[in-house]
């Protein structure tokens, strides 16, 4: 424990109170470490608004959520009506509900931008691996939170969306059917499902989410923020140990982020007040029909923020497995040829490749009407592809082997690679909303290969090309 | 400079991605929907007339179980006006708009329970237009069809269970088909339009106006707060715009000394 401080006798009541608190709780110390004496690089640009905006949306969601829970009924016979009750009879209920429903989509917009910033400037690179991993865990929680929250209005799309997604788990070999039964708590999505999703949505996941956000920020403040130049500001310090290119977060970035907050609120309010359905992308028209377990809608699509991943699930057809066969064989051959493995290592690669190929049904043959080595269902591989498309993000710190962090000092064609990746992601997102047909499935299959190619080949391509010299100090133009 | 090209490239790629959306939207088909005249949504006389039509023609079989009668205050009606003119199915002005039709009977009469109309226009939007456009077109697209149990069919909702409730107003229409030679000698039965067979009590223009009022009411009822929402939104945006300027200058004041 530090020394017990005593405020001067003529100090104001406020100073005395703060001294009293500081002797018992590190209030001033926390304020200094995380705000007034947290030194952030002074060259933050547009992309650096989205971290504070994500925090803002989290607060909006929690506060509006608290008020919604006061009036919402997690009961299959009452849920739909209680949402309409909120929209009509609860004073300001419509505003709270629209803020929450728009906030869900805004959360993903902001988080996708925040993650893309990390891609651009290598914010996941050493020493920020844990900042990134906590962030990916937040993203994963957010997906769970959004998925379970989407069931609560108990409309047709809520119901059938949940039905489709929970059924995916049943594709997992051995435990799948029991697992999906456990998630639903029933043989179909029902009142039991609604109750447990409600519990997860309002208690379990928000608790984990808040813990992860704290861990994300603590880890960030331990290592310090990255910046658009990808240069460590801590290596150039003045006599007092303050980074020369740093600036206190408060007040400089608090006023700066305030500008971002108000700009965001203008766009957010424009949606909430003038287009809360956002043309059916934020609130789908089918969800204004109460859930009916006997009427399957002709077209079931997840909300827009899940569709890139959903597209990759649908792209994994039996034909796609044949493409995977070829890719696995090429990958195994390349690692045998180019990789410097011992004989044991080579044996492991061959056995692993054969097992995966068997799983794809590559060795399927028929004798006397019996099919042997059928492999696993394409649906299972689809689930794996969808899961993998999110989980692969966790490995970014090790996939990226580029000698520089920031895109600014990478070869020009790296920017084109990023461009292709972004376009692929958007096209996959669009295709996931649409009903599938042969052409769209083919495009989403190409997109899936490009998406995974971007990540899996990154250790190779990120090292290629002529890198530009990285300056010693950050590039900053005074405002 | 470098940053600019990166942003340009990013924006260009986003535009390319969205141009695909445009192509795909253009491909969707189905019978076209007429455009609902949206200006009626803010016209109190139209909304009140729509409410009257709704209570008289719709509320007997359909209900609007999330809507209270006294919410009609918002379109300029008083409790007394509601009580003496519109309160047939309920007792108190604070009641929900429910119907006395038993769902079991409804199923027997129509083959299905008539859907609740509280949010009907919000639930029917599609690639052909808004939900209001759909209902507006639907109510004008009934025609005589002796093969159906009710004697009625509908162009935008084929084989619908609902008979044409507004037939006395509109009159009866008949679907006109013509045989046309399709590809390869096949004769196709092509729909050529709806033709008024026996006129109703209203002219075509008056009937359209009545349906527009009814749909305006349905659209308003699907979200009674919507006109307030837009009004408040304008105020919020004005406030935020002013506040943005203050924040912009505040930020500049703090950062002007940072070199």
Task: Please characterize this protein's 3D structure.
The complex is a heterodimer of chains A (479) and B (259). Chain A is an all-alpha fold and 479 residues long. Helices cover 61% and strands 3% of the residues of chain A. Chain A has 18 helices and 4 strands. In chain A, strand 3 (365-367) and strand 4 (370-372) form a beta hairpin. Chain A is globular and about 100 Å long. The model of chain B is unreliable at 18-29 (pLDDT under 50). Chain B starts with a helix and ends with a helix. By secondary structure, chain B is of the alpha+beta class. In chain B, helix 6 (131-138) packs antiparallel against helix 8 (204-222). Chain B has helices spanning 2-27, 44-58, 79-85, 103-110, 120-123, 131-138, 167-170, 204-222, 226-255; strands at 64-68, 96-97, 142-144, 152-154, 171-181, 187-199. Chain B is extended and about 80 Å long. Chains A and B meet through helix 4, helix 5, helix 10 and helix 16 of A and helix 1, strand 1 and helix 9 of B.
Report the sheet-strand fraction of chain A: under 5%
User: Which chain pair has the greatest contact?
Assistant: A-B, 52 and 55 residues
What's the average pLDDT of chain A? 95
Rg of chain B (CA only): 25 Å
The sequence of SSEs of chain A as H and E is HHEHHHHHHHEHHHHEEHHHHH
Q: Indicate the structural class of chain A.
A: mainly alpha
Overall pLDDT of chain B = 87
- Intertermini distance of chain B: 20 Å
- SSE series of chain B: HHEHEHHHEEHEEHH
Helical content of chain A stands at 55-70%
Sheet having the most strands of chain B: 2 strands, antiparallel
Name the strands of the widest sheet of chain A in spatial order. Answer: 1-2
